Amino acid sequence: MKDEEILSHIDHTLLKAVTGWPEIQKLCEEALRYHTASVCVPPSYVKRIREHFPALNICTVIGFPLGYNTTAVKVAEAVRAVEDGAGEIDMVINLGDVKNGDFDKVTTEIRQVRKAINDRILKVIIETCYLTEAEKTGLCESVTAGGADYIKTSTGFGTAGAKIEDIRLFKRHIGPKVKIKAAGGVKTREDLELFLGEGCDRIGTSSAVTLLAGGSAGAY
To answer: Which domain holds residue 178?
Structure first.
């Protein structure tokens, strides 16, 4: 797989709480230079990025990283992110709802965020490291029924990141219109090719530009 093809599937990511504007600016410059799919950044930087990099596709995170914000808060966050210039939203589901077996509530929340952002891309982070196989399967159904564009493995802040067996499980249970994003722990060229080869359409990582194009992005 050519470097350019891999990079076209990368959400070039920097979500550390202590990230300053010079790091964000460098991330954006790398994304434009190497034609990554997007930059994935904290919501507080979306507006400034849009002003300084008008051609850039901006992804941001909602309910991040724990997901237990109320639905109203997530909707408000998503609306503001779109107003600020985000083209893609990565939202974290409420893991408490999952542990309570309330998948209908999860589906409803996804559907409400979907409605709030109109035609922007919606990715739903389910944080696989905390889930049983049955819960993952149930969330594949919720993500599909909620109208999301992607199911995403991880925040990168949990106890583990993307695993190839979860990608294979997703493929068995998501609807035909739902794509897959792997994130967290995808750090080598072999990892990138493996996850893309298994059918991931996006990978969230800070490592790809460093590996393939000589950049120097920070840790996820």
So the answer is: 3-213
pLDDT, mean of residues 31-54: 98
Instruction: Write out pLDDT tens, residues 76-113.
Output: 999 999 999 999 999 999 999 999 999 999 999 999 99
Annotation says 149 is catalytic: no
In a domain, 114, yes or no: yes
> What pTM was estimated for this model as a whole?
0.95
Total count of domains within the chain: 1
Q: How far apart are CA 17 and CA 200, in angstroms?
A: 27
- 213 pLDDT tier (thresholds 50, 70, 90): confident
Q: Indicate if 181 belongs to the active site.
A: yes
Residue 81 lies in a domain: yes
- For residue 203, the domain's CATH number is 3.20.20.70
Q: How many CB atoms lie within 10 A of CB 188?
A: 12
Is 11 noted as a catalytic residue in this protein?
no
